[in-house]
Structures are given as C-alpha cells and as structure tokens.
Specification:
CATH architecture of the largest domain in chain A: 3-Layer(aba) Sandwich
Strand content of chain A: 5-15%
Strand order of the largest sheet of chain A: 2-1-3-5
Largest sheet of chain A: 4 strands, parallel
Oligomer: heterodimer
Number of domains of chain B: 3
Number of domains of chain A: 2
Shape of chain A: globular
Number of strands of chain A: 10
Helix content of chain A: 40-55%
CATH architecture of the largest domain in chain B: 2-Layer Sandwich
CATH superfamily of the largest domain in chain B: ATPase, nucleotide binding domain
Order of helices and strands of chain B: EEEHEHEHEEEHHHHEHEHEEEH
Structural class of chain B: alpha/beta
CATH class of the largest domain in chain A: Alpha Beta
Shape of chain B: globular
CATH topology of the largest domain in chain A: Rossmann fold
Radius of gyration of chain A: 20 Å
Strand order of the largest sheet of chain B: 3-2-1-4-5
Helix content of chain B: 25-40%
Largest interface: A-B, 27 and 21 residues
Largest sheet of chain B: 5 strands, mixed
Strand content of chain B: 15-25%
Chain lengths: 325, 322
C-alpha cells in the first residue's frame, strides 16, 4: 500500500507528523517531486483560473502523484491551533482537486479541526489508522512515533534549520550547524511555509539572500510561547492561522531580534495577505528604528530578474544604511 | 585624464556616459535599444570611442546597469554590475545632494526611491503592469500621430484636461478613443492622459510613501514637460528635472564603477575593440530536469564567454571549467 503526500502547502508544517505515522502503520509514503516547471504547468492547466499560484502548484503535485499511489492523503485542515482557521482554500482543497483532476485514486480527506479540543488530533489519526489496520495497538504505536518525530522536528526548526534541512536531519541523524555570520546583516523573511521553502516558486529567494551573505530568520524559527505573547499586542487577531503567525513573528523579530529589514513574500492575489501585508508593513514603518520593508510578489512567471533586482537593491539599501559599503 | 564609463541598457533606451575623476559628465550617448542589446552596446561603444578620440581620456573603470546589465557586463568587461535602483539613487544623490525623493519613469518600468541624508531608505517598483511608462506614451503618441517630443508641450496648452482612467493602459486607450470621438481637442486629451498616468503612478508605485522635497524626476519620460507639470499639480511641490535626466542610470553605474575601482585597483575593461568583435547570443532549452530552463550562450568569435539562465548552476559552472 502506498500513500501519496503532495510536497507543498501544509507539507512543510506537518510532513514529519504524517511520515512516521504511516510508516508505523506499515504503509509506504510517496512524496511528489520538488516543484518544477512541468509540475506548475500541469497545475495551471488543471486549476480554476482565479486560484493563487500555491493552489495551482498543489494541483500539479496531485497530478504527479495520482498514478503512483493507491491513496492520496489530503486532510481537510480546518484549525491547527484550536483558535484560528486555515485559508478557505485549504478547507475546500479535496473538493477542488476532485472536480479538477480526473482519474484520481482514493482520497483520505478527513477533517482535522483542533477547535474541537486537543484530543482531536489523536481521534483524527486513529480514524486514518483504521483505514489501514484493525490493530488498535499498531495505530497507537504509530501515533506515538509520529508525535515523537514531530516534536523533534519543531525543535530543529527553532534551532534555525530550514524544513528541508530538518527533514534530512531526521532521516540521517546528521545535524548541520546553521551558519551565522555575525558581521553581516539580518533579515526577517516572512511568508507562508509553502512559498518560502519551495525553492522553485520563491525563485530561490532564501538561497539568493544566503549568497549575498545575509542571515535570514523565518516565522518557523519563533518559539510558540513568543508567538503567543505577541498575539496579545493586537486588539484583534486575524482569522487565518498562517497569517497570524506571519504578523506575530514580524513583531517578535522587530522587538526581540533587532532585524535590519523585513521581506514579505506573498502570492499574487492572496486574499488573507491583503490584510497581512499591510499589517506587517505598518509594523515596520512605525517601529522607532524605521525598519526597511520589501514586498516580493510571486506568481506563475518564471522571470527571476524582477525579484532579483528588488532583493539586490534592498540588500544594498541596508548595507549602505549600516555604512557597510 | 582618467575616465569612468557607465552603461545603462534598458528595454527602450541604451545610455552610455563617461565621467571624470571629479564626476563631471564628459560624454553622454543616448540610443534606442530596439530589441538588440548587443549591437546597440557595440554601436554605443563606437560612438564613445569616437567622442574621446584626441581627448586623452583613459577608461579606468566600467559599470553596467539596467535590465540587460549582466549581458552588457560580460561583453564590455564590467568592474561592477548593479541593479538600476541603486544606480539611479547614487546618481540622483550625486546631482542633487539633499534629494529626498526620486521619481523615475523609464521605458517599461517606473520606480520611486526615497532617500534621507543621502541614503536610500525605501523604494518601490511598478509590479506586473507597464501602464504609465514610456512605452505606453510612445504608443499613444504614434496613434495620435504626434511626435513624442511635442507630446508634453501640447499638454501644457490645455485649459481643461479631460478625465481619463489611468489604472490600466488598455482602459486608458479606450477612454481616450471615446473622448476623441466625442470631440474633445487633442490637447485636453493629452493633458488628461498625463494626469491619469501621474495619478496611477502615485497610487501604485508611490502608494503610502512619504514624498518630501526636493523631488527629482528622471528617466526618459522626464523629458515630457506635461508629465512634469502634472506631477507638480498632484504633489503641490516643485519637481526638479536634472540636466542629464535621460542618462541618470548610466551616470550611477559610472559612479559605482569609480568607487569599485578604488577598492580593487585594476579595471577588467576589455577595451573599445569590443565594438568590432562578433558577439553571438544563442539559447537552448536544457532537458536535464523538468524545469526546462532556457539557457543563454554568449560567445565571442566562436568561443563561449558566458552562460546563464539555469536554475541549478550546472551551465554556469561549465563555462568556468571550459
């Protein structure tokens, strides 16, 4: 039995939970290849025209998996923290995919909504487990493995590893030390995990910054308790799970980490980002240190030049401001 | 005398300038790119060589900028290859030392740069749409059969500009056609277009930016007095157009080359002979992975000089190892 997981959207948040769980059930996990042009082209063909590029890409990943697996795992993610909801497109994802792509294998699309209580995750995993085995003990063991692996993953992210580095570390046990260049500038790169850590769709933004010798911090590196503390700064928080984490981590980086600049990566036409982008911009603008801010918009176009020009100029601006040139 | 060459190859125009050690502009060349950046750079080099003949100027540093900056940098052997935002900011703050706002409208992009105390603190570029840039003005001038050089002066003759939707160039054009068929004089339509472009620029590129004087307006479109007047009306501030407004990017590149040379000593300039060499650009689609990158090959006299366009770096490395 092979279960397919698309390498995008919640993948960068939850894959270390799903993988050991399915393996514990004795199921093979198949992940779609890293995003590439052919995959995006396929996704653009299959998806409704108005969707944002991450959703189009998701369709491409599903199309790449559909003939290689027996079951597609695509849970209907409603809430991951018990308070805030994921973007509506996450909620409708299984339906969108069913309507757009033909010839799909069985889809597991159980609802995961932690607003129903903390134990909901275990009830969810138990239901999924029952699809594969009748052995209660086997499911409970798989849940335990998943939990253990997931908390290790969270710890690695807090140490400053990117999700890909953390995946490698969990697989091989080798732990790379994040390079820190103390004399250099430090930038907060904000955005949703599926935009930031997908090298294709972000046109290699993180690597580009690294090649300029910039230290990069991202929302995944912020401890949960700090996010919670920052959430009290706003009179009212946003509806959306990932958007809130972007805004809170922005506040954290500005208040506690002395970042030199903030880059917000947003997908063209993203609804939740209409609010998020403005909130983040205002945070930087009204900071006493007047932190430079840049919005990078990603879309289907493959031209890296536009992004490269803006990012290069942005890094120049900060270097000159700090008198490093 | 020591001279520094700056080259700005944009989508519409290609500019070359030579400055001396005191940053005075000795030579400026303005050419249309016409979709052939290599040939036009070679033509520009020929004109610069012609102009400095007998003047005893030695080129001690070269900088390139603009959308074809990498290509040009390889062809001429540049000491510094910089993005156009930095280049324009450097040039503006050199020409007008206390400048706080730079408005730049070029052929296919427009940007705003905010400086405080001579340092760039914020900038923005137009996003995907090229509405309100030079190309669109060119197109409208051609459609109305007015030479682009007279476009701005005609706008100044208008007493009551008509209102034109400037959000999108497609809508702007249909709006203009509508107004012209209704019988509005062409001066009023052109003035209305200038207002619409400025409104669009301030709402999109200049959105939320604190525009403080002195304001410098540069780039090819700054030649248009109609747009300049529209900016002054909209901002309520005097808008200053520098003498070399059309080649500011190139001046910035030259200034950056000058400071780059201070750091590293010798120039990599390949000499004016580049204008007679045979450069060839070819491209192919790499089938190494599903990304299908479009790789560009630049060769001189049959020998591969540089390659780029790949995402993995494989082709770029091949170039170094031969």
């Amino acid at each position: 039995m092979r279960v397919g997981i698309p390498r995008t959207l919640s993948f960068f948040t939850l894959y270390p939970l799903w993988k050991p769980f399915f393996e514990g059930l004795g199921v093979d996990v198949v992940v779609s290849p890293e995003s590439n042009k052919a995959l995006l082209d396929e996704g653009v063909r299959e998806t409704v025209n108005d969707a944002c590029v991450p959703i189009k890409l998701f369709h491409g990943h599903v199309a790449a998996l559909k003939n290689k697996v027996d079951i597609l795992f695509m849970p209907r993610l409603v809430s991951l923290d018990g308070k805030h909801t994921l973007c509506p497109k996450f909620l409708g994802l299984p339906d969108m995919v069913r309507c757009s792509i033909s010839g799909l294998p069985e889809i597991i699309d159980f609802r995961l909504d932690l607003k129903k209580g903390k134990l909901e995750l275990y009830r969810f995993l138990y239901r999924v487990g029952q699809r594969f085995t009748a052995s209660r003990a086997k499911i409970i063991r798989a849940i335990w493995l998943a939990r253990h692996n997931f908390s290790r993953y969270r710890k690695l992210l807090l140490q400053g590893l990117t999700p890909q580095e953390a995946f490698n570390c969990l697989d091989t046990g080798y732990e790379p030390q994040p390079e820190k260049n103390m004399s250099s500038i430090r930038l907060a790169v904000l955005g949703y995990p599926y935009s930031l850590y997908d090298n294709y769709i972000s046109v290699g933004l993180l690597e580009k910054l690294k090649s300029y010798g910039v230290n990069v911090v991202t929302p995944e590196m912020v401890p949960e308790r700090e996010l919670k503390r920052m959430s009290k700064n706003l009179p009212k928080n946003l509806f959306w799970y990932y958007s809130n984490r972007v805004v809170w981590s922005c506040m954290y980086f500005l208040q506690k980490q002395n970042v030199d600049g903030v880059i917000h990566v947003t997908a063209f036409g993203c609804g939740p980002d209409a609010m998020t982008n403005k909130l983040v911009e205002l945070e930087t603008k009204y900071n006493p240190r007047k932190i430079p801010f840049l919005t990078v918009t990603i879309d289907e176009h493959t031209g890296e030049v536009g992004v490269a020009t803006r990012v290069e100029a942005f890094v120049d601006l900060i270097r000159r401001k700090k008198g490093m040139v | 005398m020591r001279g520094y060459l700056g080259i700005d190859v944009g989508s519409v125009s290609t500019n070359l300038v030579v400055i001396d050690d005191d940053c005075n502009v000795l030579i400026d060349v303005y050419l249309r790119t016409r979709g052939q950046p290599i040939q036009v750079v070679q033509e520009g080099m020929r004109q610069v060589e012609e102009a400095i003949k007998g003047k005893n100027i030695e080129i001690c540093g070269v900088g390139t900028t603009g959308s074809a900056r990498i290509l040009t940098g390889v062809i001429v052997g540049a000491d510094t290859v910089k993005n156009e935002i930095t280049a324009h900011a450097v040039a503006a703050s050199h020409m007008v030392p206390d400048v706080q706002t730079v408005l730049e409208i070029g052929g296919q992009d427009s940007k705003i740069i905010l400086l405080r105390d001579g340092i760039v603190v914020d900038f923005a570029m137009n996003t995907v749409c090229a509405a309100g840039t030079g190309s669109f003005l060119d197109h409208q001038a051609a459609r109305l059969n007015i030479p682009i050089e007279q476009f701005g002066e005609l706008a100044l003759e208008s007493k009551s500009p008509v209102r034109i939707a400037g959000r999108c160039s497609v809508f702007a054009e249909s709006d203009m056609v509508h107004k012209q068929q209704m019988g509005h004089p062409v001066q009023d339509i052109i003035a209305g277009l200038c207002d619409a472009l400025v409104r669009n620029y301030l709402n999109n590129v200049g959105k939320g930016k604190e525009i403080l004087p002195p304001v410098v307006f540069q780039g090819g479109v700054a030649a248009n007095v109609g747009i300049r007047a529209a900016f002054e009306r909209a901002l309520g501030l005097e808008v200053f157009v520098p003498e070399y407004f059309h080649v500011m990017g190139a001046i910035g590149a030259a200034l950056l080359a000058k400071s780059a040379i201070r750091g590293k000593g010798r120039t990599q300039f390949r000499g004016f002979a580049v204008s007679d060499m045979e450069y060839k650009a070819t491209s192919f689609e790499c089938n190494g992975c599903p990304n299908l990158c479009e790789i560009v090959n630049i060769s001189v006299n049959g020998e591969v000089l540089a390659r780029w366009g790949g995402r993995c770096g494989k082709w770029e490395t091949l170039q170094k190892t031969g």
